[in-house]
Amino acid sequence: MLTWPHGDSDWASILPEAEDVFVRIAREVTRRESLIVACRDEDHEIHVCGQLAQSQVDMGRVTTALAPGNDTWARDHGPLTILENGVPVMLDFTFNGWGGKYPAEADNRITACLHDQGVFGERALRPVDFVLEGGAIESDGLGTLLTTHGCLMTPSRNPGLDTRAVESVLRRELGAQRVLWLKHGHLEGDDTDGHVDTLARLCDPDTIAHVVCEDPEDPHHGPLLAMTRELAALRTPQGHPYRLVPLPLPAPIHNEEGQRLPATHANFLIINGAVLVPTYNDPADEVALEALAGVFPDREIIGIDCRALIRQFGSLHCVTMQIPSLPPLPGPSLPTPE
């Protein structure tokens, strides 16, 4: 799922560059799976479809729908999917603009709007009265959640709830059997209060890829080193340490105002048969791509230049949300074709 950028937003000054990135993501996704695109209105939908078709995107795999939004961060306003008795159920958590930092009323309605139009098929949608962004949690799919204390415990998200109460919600709604909390690690320019998808990612039940900073003069060095030590102390449900895969932090990237931007290779997206990895025209790009190739040997590793996205303080994983496919309908057993 993508929520396409438009001119009536903070993307206005760099809209062509941002749309180029979205087109590249759409092209790689539709080579392997279907794509849902949320557009703000009919004119925007016509524009988006024209861009995609002109770029040789397989339009047979694209579904567009109208859902006016404030911004484009589908990871945080899109639905989170769980399995109940093997059937996907979509959860519509509350999105309040990362603790009230930005307008988000329209974004908060996007998931329900898309569901009402049938673009998610037969998947059930359940609203959840709890503020939670998809970028704030990582799951191994087997009951373990990884998150950051700085984000989930920010009072402007769910005031009055302590750690135990937050964990209770995660267990009840997401089926979490245990929650691993990180108290260290933060990227300058990040306005999410430390989304874990910019810092550390569960690649499989035993492996965590995480951001490191090797320059002792960089202000990220100490906090990320402390995060690495936290990760090294974590254990799998079987009691084993996780395999840690370091991803080097790119050299500092600043905007026109001199503010450092939160560029990170940890913001990758896993799709069918491939991993899309944000790159920043930096020597660290190749190091990260090679490291992730070792983590995902059965998937193609594809770098996508995300320097335009990072100018709005997010990256590739932040603008996307995966929607698991429905299981096949029960029916008569058919012979396998020769």
UniProtKB/TrEMBL annotation:
InterPro entries from the entry? Peptidyl-Arg-deiminase_porph (IPR007466)
Please verify whether the record's keywords include Metal-binding. Answer: no
Mind telling me which Pfam families this protein's record contains? Answer: PAD_porph (PF04371)
Taxonomically, which superkingdom? Bacteria
Record's PANTHER family? AGMATINE DEIMINASE-RELATED
Keywords per UniProt: Hydrolase
User: Which biological process terms from the Gene Ontology are attached to this UniProt entry?
Assistant: putrescine biosynthetic process
* Protein name per its UniProtKB record: Agmatine/peptidylarginine deiminase
What GO molecular-function term can you cite, just one?
Answer: protein-arginine deiminase activity
SUPFAM superfamilies membership: Pentein
